């Protein structure tokens, strides 16, 4: 009669503890709490004056908890900026505007971007400072710029193809100049370097876009009638 296998010889997989399988919602939320707390501290104190202990205090977690997820202040700042990148690159003209008329569409999109920059102005200003020495953060800034410029280039080319914008404009250079203008003017306003009325500023930005491209002014001789709003 065969001898039953000893526990050490058993081929059956050990039963996984139900405790180990159970999800811990509090632990899963910890990185999100740390990111939210870090945003508060970075916006309040800036990057260089911010302390990790203040972040853990704001998140109401033990001081060593942060190091389970982020190895340094630069790393958690990058996590905060990743949220900003997702917001600014996640908005597309198709998501914010139902207008078919290009002028009305442009005005609405510019307003959405200005408001998104306003919500993140303090962090974007810090991004420029930190990005001088942190390549990962610099790349995050480049991602935002590339998204805005890419959308603008596509729009200029489309409007030129539809006979709605001046055909002799270089779409890449024109789009880059206009997007840099929006970003710099908005940042100067939001960081206190310039005192603008928001409504007047957005109206001026839209007017520069429209006149620079010829929207509402230029129409190719053989173009189809413009769509209505």
How do the helices and strands line up, and which of them pair or pack?
Blueprint: H1 18-21, H2 25-45, H3 52-59, H4 73-90, H5 93-96, H6 102-119, H7 121-131, H8 135-161, H9 171-190, H10 198-213
Query: How many DSSP-defined strands?
Result: 0
Distance between the termini: 89 Å
Query: Per DSSP, what share of the residues sits in E-state strands of 2 or more residues?
Result: under 5%
Give helix and strand order, one letter per element, not per position: HHHHHHHHHH
Unreliable stretches, pLDDT < 50, 5 or more residues?
7-21
User: Overall 3D geometry?
Assistant: elongated
| Residues in helix, % | 55-70%
Count of helical stretches: 10
Structural class determined from secondary elements = mainly alpha
Mean pLDDT: 84
CA gyration radius, whole angstroms: 26 Å
Oligomer: single chain
Largest sheet: none
Concise overview:
The chain is mainly alpha-helical and 229 residues long.
Descriptive report:
The protein has helices at 18-21, 25-45, 52-59, 73-90, 93-96, 102-119, 121-131, 135-161, 171-190, 198-213. With 229 residues, the chain is mainly α. Helix 6 (102-119) crosses helix 10.
